[in-house]
Amino acid sequence: MCDRFNAARLQLSPKFQGHSPYMQPQPLTTFQSLRRSFWMVVKAAPSELRNLALLNLFTRTGPAVSLFLTKIVIDEASRLMGQGVTQDAIALILSQPKLMWSVIAALTLNLIVDAVDSVSTALIASLRDRVQGHVQGQVLQKVATFDDIALFETPELLNLVELTTKGVQRLQRLSMIMAATLVGVFMLIPSVLLSWSIAWWVPLLLIISSAPSILVEMKHHRKSWRTEATQAGLTREMEIYSKLLIGEAYAKEIRLFSLQSILLDRWRGLFSRLFNKMQRIRREGAIAVMLWALVGGLGAALPYVYVVLGVLRGSYTLGDLALYTGIILQLRQSLYILIGNTGELYDVALATSPIFQLLDLQPELRSGDRPKVATSESLQPGVHLQDLCFSYPGSDKRILDQINLTIRPGEMVALVGENGAGKTTLAKLLCRLYDPTQGSISWNGQDLRSLSLEELRSRIGVVMQDYARFPTTLRENVGWGFLPKVHEDTAVHAVLQDAGIDQIVADLSQGLETPLGKQLEQGIDLSGGQWQRVAIARSLLRLSQVELLVFDEPTAALDPKNEHEIYRIFRTIAQGRMTVVVSHRLALAKLADRIVVLEHGKIIESGNHNQLMEAGGQYCTMFTRQASSYL
Fold it and tell me: Could you give the CA distance from residue 453 to residue 442 in angstroms, rounded to a whole number?
C-alpha cells in the first residue's frame, strides 16, 4: 500500500510543480476592451437602454420635424404678407388650413417633446446607478473570492486594483456616452436627410471637416491614459497617506508626534507631481483640438453661406433659409456629440481594460477537487512538510528554505525565532494562503493542493497576529467564525466564556447585538486585549470540526496575568488536535510538546523545552534573555 501511495504522489506532483514569479494580467486590445465594456453595460441595464433608445428616437427626431413645420409656417406667412392681406390675424390663420394645422402641429410637438424629454434625466440617472452597481459588484466579488492573497501583497496587482476603481467610474461614464450617442444618432439621421436636399456635398463636407478633430482627440486620450496608467503607483501612494491622515488607527500618534505637516507635505507633493504631468498633457491636447475645431467651424460655415446666397437669388424661400439654418446647426451639433463621444469611447476602452484584466485574472493558488480531508487513520497521519521552500510573489528571496517538519495528531508545536525568521509565513502556508514555491505540504497523506480549499479551511482554526476587527455586532464578530452557529446564543456565549471575555459581554446594554467600532452609530470600541479575545472566540466557535489549530502571536496584546489564562485555554482546546503556535513569548512555547526554532528561513533546532535548554543553542539564548527581563 505504501508503494501505491508513493506512486500516486509521484503522479500528482507534476500538476503542482512550478511556481511562476507572480500572476500576470493578460493584455487586451482597445477593441476587445471596448467590446466587453459595451456588453457589460448592456448586461447591467438592458431595460434602461431600451427605454432611452425609444425616448431619444422620439425626442431627437422631433426637432427636425418641428423645423420642417416651421418652414411651412414661414412660407405661408410670407405668401399672405406678400398678398397684402389685412384680415384679422386669428381669423386669417383659421381661414388657412395649411397654416393653422402647421402651427398647431409645431406647438403640440414641441410641448410633447419638452414634456417627454424631462423623463430622460431620471432614466439616465437610473442607467448610471445600475451600471455602477453591476460593475462594482462584479469587481468586489472577484476580489473577495480571490483565493490567492498575493493579490493584496504584490505592488503590480495592487496597481491593477487601483486602476480598476478608476475603470468602474469610466464604465459608469460609458453608460452616459451610450445615452448621448443615441441622442447624436437620432439627431444625425434626419439632419443628414434634410441637409442632403440642399446639396449632396453638405453632409459630406461637415463630416470630413470634423474628422481631424476626432483623430487628434483620440491621440490625446491615448497619451493621457498612458500617463495615468504609469502613475497608478503614485495614486496608490497618495491614497496611503490620505488614509494615514484621516484613519482612526493613526490619529493619536500623528497628533502626539506632530506628524501632520510631514504627511500633508508628502501627500501634496505626490498630488503636485501627478497633477502637473496630467496638466501638461491636457493643455497640449486642448490646444490641438481647438485648432482643428476651427477647421470644422469653416466646414459648417460654407453651407450656411450657400443657402443665404440662394435666398438672395430667389432659388430658396425664407422658410428654406430657416429650415436649412436649423438643420445645418442640428447636423453640426449631432456631429459634435458623436465626435466627442468617439474620443471618450477610446478613453473608456483604455481605462476599462484593468477591469477585465482583473476579472480574467486567475490565482496561482487553486482549489483541489478532493472534497474531504482524509482521516488521521491514513498511512501518514498528521501534517508533513517536505523540502518546503517559499518566496513571496515577485521576489527571488527565499523566506523558507528546505523545511522538513511533521506535526502529529494531538501534538502542539511552537514555532519560535527572531523577527523575519519565517514563522508567520510558515503559518500562512499551513492555512494554504500560499502554495510552496518548491516542496510540498500533505495532510494525512494528501497534498494540500489536491484538497478543496473550502473543506480544508473548515478544518482549521486560526488566530492571526493581524486579526480582523469587523465593524459589526459582537455576535457577528464571533459568529462569523462558523456561520451555522452565528444565531446560536448558547454557542456564542460559550466561546466568549472560554476566551475569558464573557464578563465584558454581560456589561454591554445590547449584549451580543452591541455594535463594535466607533465608526458605527452607537458603536463601542474594545481594548486591544479584548479584541484579541474576540478573535480567539471566533476561532473557538468552529472547534467541533477543527483538526488543526494555528495561533500566530495569540497573546501579543495581553498582559502577563491574562496571558497565563489564555495559555490554559490553549492547552485545553489543543487536546487531541494538531496545534501550531507562533510566539515571541517563550513561556507559551514552554508548554508545547515540541519547539521548532527558525532562523533565516531554516530549522536550526527542534525538541522540547528541557532538551533545547540542555543543548545550550539559540533557543536557550533567547529564553534566558527573555526570562532575565522579568527578574
Answer: 14
Residue 476 parent element (H or E): helix 474-479
pLDDT digits (tens, 9 = 90+) for 379-422: 678 999 999 999 887 778 899 999 999 999 989 999 998 888 89
Rounded to whole angstroms, how far apart are CA atoms 627 and 401? 30
- DSSP letter for each residue of 95-159: H-HHHHHHHHHHHHHHHHHHHHHHHHHHHHHHHHHHHHHHHHHHHHHHHHT---GGGGT-HHHHH
Provide the sign of the torsion angle of the four alpha carbons 47, 52, 57, 59, taken in this order: positive
Residue 407, beta-bridge partner list:
383
Distance separating alpha carbons of residues 71 and 320, to the nearest angstrom: 6
Tell me the pTM. 0.66
Q: Of 26-40, 138-152, 280-294, 429-443, where does mean pLDDT reach its minimum?
A: 280-294
Tell me, what amino acid is at 553? E
**Whether the Cβ atoms of residue 206 and residue 303 lie closer than 8 Å to each other:** yes
- Could you write out the DSSP letters of every residue in 420-452? TSSHHHHHHHHTTSS--SEEEEEETTEEGGGB-
Task: For residue 577, give the nearest of 550, 547, 610, 601 by alpha carbon.
Answer: 547
Give the CA distances from residue 319 to residues 60, 61, 72, 79, 100, in Å, rounded to whole numbers and listed in that order: 21, 19, 7, 11, 16
Sequence-distant (6+) residues with CB within 8 A of 189 are: 61
Distance CA 363, CA 347 (A): 29
Phi, psi of 550 (to 5 degrees): -125, 115
631: Cβ contacts below 8 Å, ≥ 6 apart: none
Match 525565532 to its residue by C-alpha cell: 417
Domains along the chain with CATH numbers: 30-360 (1.20.1560.10), 381-459+548-631 (3.40.50.300), 470-546 (3.40.50.300)
